[in-house]
Amino acid sequence: MSKKLELIMRAKIDGEIFARSIFALSAVISILAVALICVFLAANSFPALREIGVLKFLFGTSWKPSDIPPSYGVLPMILGSLYVTAGAVIIGVPIGVLTAVFLAKCCPKKIYKLIKPGVDLLAGIPSVVYGFFGMAILLPVFGGSIISASILLGIMILPTVIGLSEAALRAVPESYYEGALALGAGHYRATFAAVLPAAKSGIFAAVILGIGRAIGETMAVIMVAGNQARIPSSIFKGVRTLTSNIVLEMGYAEGLHRQALIATGLVLFVFILIINLSFQALKSRSKS
Amino acid sequence: MKKVSETILKIITIGAAIITISVLLFIIIFILIKGTPYIKPSLFSLSYNSENVSLMPALISTVAMTILSLVIAAPVSIFAAIWLCEYARRGNKLVKLVRITAETLSGIPSIVYGLFGMLFFVSFLGWGYSLLAGAFTLSVMILPLILRSTEEALTAVPDAWREGSFGLGAGKLRTVMRIILPAAAPGIFSGIILAVGRIVGESAALIYTAGSVAQIPENVFASARTLSVHMYALSSEGLHVGEGYATAVILLIVVVLINAASAAIAKKVGGYR
Known about the structure:
The complex is a heterodimer. Chain A is mainly alpha-helical. Helix content of chain A is 80%, strand content 1%. Chain A has a two-stranded antiparallel ribbon. Chain B is mainly α. At the A-B interface, helix 1, helix 3, helix 4, helix 5 and helix 7 of A face helix 1, helix 2, helix 3, helix 4 and helix 5 of B.
């Protein structure tokens, strides 16, 4: 009898240990995934970086993979990504932050129930659908250009900016607002002069996350940015971003060309890591 | 003076909200007007050819891709969250590393996942452009999403429930499986629904992992295009843009359903808390 009990106990303990190791192993997978992504991107782009030269790759102004000899300068694409992202911030952030102010501080409950699901829907629309919309509405007016891509990306980062800014605004203690009212400010003055500055670092975090989304967006940008691989002379000229460079040419690229495209991905990845780190830093600051 | 600034601030705030909502309405109405006329029975025929660019194969591939990615990612991310919340000790170095890497994963753009999937699953493991390579790529992408919402759901379960279960003599595993997971189920489920939304809308991560063959895949090693990839292919071919808009209508309907489902669950979770 006692032997049987002992066996049951032992099986139980074994089960516990087995389960614990399965859970721990699963947790390690996200570490493994990041490590694999780094290793595979780096290993596949290093040969190209060595052959082209890191500086020539990063600061070369011409990308002509089919020329003889080919040239692989990724600077036009780096600038392209930066330009359309800056444009998206200029268009999307003011509208997004003000909408967040409206949702958090000035919105009757009934209207909130209508607008909030709308913002969630904006977040859920696939990027190709945005691309189709941009092709039909923006291309006839602005052509494939920085301005088209900026407007479309500005719309696409709205839900990110609105969501996080609204949370940051709601986290500001009510006493800030009441204090400003007591000093004689009206509702909007109090909100803009007391609540908004207090939510500053949370809103910055929202903007940085929006930048991350804009710089990483691919399909919608391809459909409206024109995609010329040269440094644009005005905002009405076409650009190619780091992301679109990969998708446009990967289908037929071979050898050095293919590795250079993977290296383009590596550059993008480094950008994203920097953006992520600053987001983390800001988020932990806004919490404390 | 005071009144003037108050009015100006009021106008720009309400104006911004109006812009946001009108952009949304404009996009939706535009897609509906352009796409609805092209939704015909022939669009749902089982085979795709150059005369009839049926979206049915893409729809079936999308469902297959979604199920496959969830089957791979959901257990792993839920188990990982259980370990983080229920097993790991506070201040454990590994916990910190897991959290940081999961945050990193959630910021990586889909094209980088696409590159990685192409290098690792397609070339290194030799799976070729296939449903399986696409699903594995997507499951890495949705892992942080399900992990995060599971973690939130688990921490929302009151400690008294755990203590009660231990007090009745249940072991750790039994407590997790019988007490904590059922209580956290709605939260976990809403994370899974969000993940479905990302899978359905994804295109950049799939073009060079699952490829873009427009037929119903025969097995998991066959190439297949999802609805989003189908849309992109139609737009770059430029011959059947109308059918592309019709696909957009279907995608919009899916997104609305997904959002409604996650809102309904969120309401339920709120009530339970």
